[in-house]
Amino acid sequence: MDIPANTLAAMRAIVVGGAGAMGRVAAWDLARSPGVEQVTIADLDGDRAAAVAERMGRGSAASVRGVAADVGSDGLAGVLGGHDVCIASVAYRLNPLIASACLDAGCHYVDLGGLFHVALRTLELGPRFDRAGLTGVTCMGGSPGITNLLAVVGARALDRVHAVHVRLGSSDPSIEGVPLPIPYSLETLLDEFSLPAQAYRNGGFAEVPALGEPEVVRFPPPIGRRTAYTTLHSEVATLPHAFPDAREVTFKIAFEPGFVEKFTLLAAIGLASGEPIVAGRQVVRPRDVLIALGRGLPQPEGVEDIECLRVVLEGERAGKSATVTAEALVRPNHEAGIGAGGLDTGVPPSIVAQMIVAGEVRGPGMFAPEEAVDPDRFFARLAERGMTYRVRTA
What is the per-residue pLDDT across 253-295, written as a single tens digit (0 to 9) for each? Predict the structure, then answer.
């Protein structure tokens, strides 16, 4: 199934971490987009990258290949060389390393987010990208990413924005009975459940405990009524700059209740910790042990998950208080065998990578989505992939 998109001339893209759950979706979308000539899937495990490339290349007009790549090595820039754009789909702490390698290789850059602190570090590379004539967009997945641009379109219905509240809800029946579901990077999940979060209030950032400030949210069916919790996220880091009149920016997420219980327990007993401990005669990090064990755990094969990406903006319109809700309800692509979480996380960086190469994104420099990406063009291409949004005012 070809995906309509902007016309490109022989675009060459590389997805670092392309053999992972989200990276392979980005590669799938790239390989089926007109004008994309070559897609390279780079992974620490070269054999795994080659196997994924073979699957992603079936039915694609693009050439799809797999290569071995070590993000921590000096040779990464050499792997990136010859590509127009790189998508980083790795453990988020590695994003600045890949962005720096893009500078050395002379290619544009997109990533899926950096959980607040790393997002800000990645944005600090802006002057170097500007001088190099390159464009980078950080935090361009589903949340952050789609949510940032929902905030932009929702704000059009207001004269002033006083508050931005991002709420993410999901339903995934396939995780029932799975010992430890790992829908995306386990390291990212552990950080979300254990690291202090942030909220923006009254002109500054305020620390919130992980899973703090629980709030009952009514999402559309089949998600329904869920408790959402504050976790560390990138929207809080960047949206205050886009809406300087905002007194508050918050992020909360509602997982399946059983999922929350399992990860809360892991964090409570210390298995999310990165601090070394002595176990017998060995010094280990509990987190490293859990991540190693996680690689061998069975994972749900279903693609019945549903995700709701919601942004609620409070502000003024015509001198009166008003509330605007911008929301995308994402369903799985059964034909492609990709769940909603994979689609709304893996497809946006592919779209924006293509927009960068086509000259449709503000640049050069390094930007958050709300600073650089035309939301109308972006959402038009997202709709071509079956993902739409709506805006309502109260």
Answer: 999 888 999 999 999 999 999 999 998 888 999 999 999 999 8
Structure tokens belonging to residue 51: 């196997």
Torsion of CA 208, 210, 215, 218, to 10 degrees: 130
| Structure tokens belonging to residue 2 | 């070809």
Q: Residue 262: which of 352, 183, 351 has the closest Cα?
A: 183
Average pLDDT over residues 373-377: 98
Residue 99 and residue 88: Cα distance in Å, rounded?
8
Domains of the chain: 11-142+341-383 (3.40.50.720), 146-330 (3.30.360.10)
Q: State residue 182 phi and psi, 5-degree precision.
A: -130, 85
For residue 217, give every residue at least 6 positions away whose Cβ sits within 8 Å of its Cβ, in sequence order, or none.
Answer: 167, 169, 225, 226, 227, 228, 252, 254, 310
**Residue % of the chain over a pLDDT of 90:** 87
pLDDT tens-digit series, residues 99-129: 999 999 999 999 999 899 999 999 999 999 9
Torsion of CA 229, 246, 120, 156, to 10 degrees: 100
Instruction: Report whether pLDDT(52) > 80.
Output: yes
d(Cα 181, Cα 24) in Å, to the nearest integer?
Answer: 18
Residues paired with residue 306 on neighbouring β-strands, in sequence order: 171
Query: Peptide bond preceding 144: is omega within 30 degrees of 0, i.e. cis?
Result: yes
Using pLDDT thresholds of 50, 70 and 90, give the confidence band for residue 3.
very low
Give dist(CA 114, CA 98) in Å, integer.
12
pLDDT at residue 8 in the model: 61
What pTM does this model have?
A: 0.94
Higher pLDDT, 282 or 84: 84
| Alpha carbons 87 and 2: distance in angstroms, whole number | 20
